[in-house]
């Protein structure tokens, strides 16, 4: 791939040839042009990183900020109305002491110990959703029946939201994260209703604390912890961050395992592979969405290339997770792969705080499906699965299954 070609072709995100496969350009870029100029959907230019070491370095470097609203930062798309550019996104401090304090307070809720305590409840929800799906008959859409509702129900539990309100929560999350399906009026209305709901919910938790995350955070607020606005933003942020990503990952993980059914058979034969299989699905996911954009207010160097101040950098963790120099047989899905230092949850100070929860949900879903529906299979050939072309998180529009 000559430089002239690279300059001419690259529109980001790139489209792969098949729904579960990576775009062919990734491997070429990693080998020949690890610091590449690309055009974003807005028409603005950015710099794309595809190698493991470079992505990891930038995600850990505090000079690469999340100030994507700076005057000279590249706009991701023309409609910057989604959840990332709303005022909600700016309430939670994104760097420095404030960010560390927020992560410390909220992060207490995502320890392995807390996740172990949540596990039986998540298992019961998964069992119920699968029973309901079986009752409705086959073929079924695994994403709509299980992938989409489960993470919302789990987060509602975590936040102390009554079960009766779960479906409203799911609607708000879907509206705020979907950049194409809803009108601006729908999005504004959903955001307004959601903020109003969370404000009332936070006030109720302050008055009568329960055993949930928001009650605990409200208590710590009295010791100079979080303001009401921060509590509301935290509740909303957790729903939005933890919903669509996990919902899509459930669908993609099961699709990858069924696309070559020997993988599924191997897990049926050896359930101890569930944990490493979840990690490998996270690494192998070629359709993880946009990646992480960063903005540099000062000049910086990556892989021997000087990036001028004002550059917007896009870190493609999915491309980095296929880097042959780090993962042997990077283009093979190896269910027992160990070690597996993938970057699916980012790296450094902003690595995904909910990763222990996401892992728990993915492991539980896989365990319960293997146990209850050992004959599970895709109801369409894998190459006929359809990708969602939203911008924020990558996924499949549906995952048709039979059993």
TrEMBL record:
Parts forming coiled coils: none
The entry's keywords: Heme, Iron, Metal-binding, Monooxygenase, Oxidoreductase
The protein's name: Cytochrome P450
Cofactor: heme
The keyword Metal-binding is assigned to this record: yes
GO molecular function, one term: oxidoreductase activity, acting on paired donors, with incorporation or reduction of molecular oxygen
InterPro entries: Cyt_P450, Cyt_P450_B, Cyt_P450_CS, Cyt_P450_sf
Organism, scientific name: Nonomuraea turkmeniaca
Assigned protein family: Belongs to the cytochrome P450 family.
């Amino acid at each position: 791939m000559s430089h002239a070609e690279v300059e001419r072709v690259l529109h980001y995100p790139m489209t792969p040839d098949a729904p579960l496969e990576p775009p062919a350009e990734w491997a070429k870029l990693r080998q020949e042009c690890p610091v590449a100029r690309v055009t974003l959907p807005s028409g603005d230019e950015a710099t794309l990183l595809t190698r493991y070491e470079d992505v990891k370095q930038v995600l850990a470097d505090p000079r690469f900020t999340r100030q994507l609203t700076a005057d000279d930062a590249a706009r991701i798309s023309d409609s910057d109305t989604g959840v990332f550019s709303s005022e909600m996104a700016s309430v939670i401090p994104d760097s420095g002491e404030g960010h560390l304090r927020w992560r410390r307070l909220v992060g207490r809720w995502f320890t392995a110990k807390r996740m172990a305590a949540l596990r039986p409840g998540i298992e019961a929800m998964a069992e119920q959703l699968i029973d309901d799906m079986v009752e409705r008959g086959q073929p079924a859409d695994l994403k709509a029946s299980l992938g989409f509702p489960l993470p919302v129900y789990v987060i509602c539990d975590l936040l102390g939201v009554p079960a009766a309100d779960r479906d409203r929560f799911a609607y708000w999350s879907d509206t705020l994260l979907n950049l194409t399906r809803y009108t601006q009026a729908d999005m504004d209305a959903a955001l307004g209703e959601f903020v109003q709901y969370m404000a009332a919910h936070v006030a109720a938790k302050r008055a009568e604390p329960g055993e949930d995350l928001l009650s605990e955070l409200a208590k710590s607020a009295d010791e100079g912890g979080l303001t009401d606005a921060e509590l509301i933003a935290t509740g909303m942020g957790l729903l939005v961050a933890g919903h669509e990503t996990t919902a899509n990952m459930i669908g993609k993980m099961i699709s990858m395992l069924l696309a070559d059914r020997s993988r599924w058979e191997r897990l049926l034969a050896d359930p101890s592979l569930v944990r490493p299989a979840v990690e490998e699905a996270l690494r192998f996911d070629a359709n993880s969405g946009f990646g992480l954009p960063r903005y540099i207010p000062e000049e910086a160097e990556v892989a021997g290339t000087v990036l001028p101040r004002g550059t917007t950098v896009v870190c493609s963790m999915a491309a980095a997770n296929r880097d042959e120099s780090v993962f042997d047989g990077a283009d093979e899905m190896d269910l027992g792969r160990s070690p597996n230092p993938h970057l699916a949850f980012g790296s450094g100070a902003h690595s995904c705080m909910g990763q222990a929860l996401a892992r728990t949900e993915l492991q539980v879903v896989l365990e319960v499906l293997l146990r209850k529906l050992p004959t599970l299979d895709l109801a369409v050939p894998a190459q006929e699965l359809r990708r969602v072309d939203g911008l924020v998180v990558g996924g499949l529009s549906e995952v048709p299954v039979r059993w």
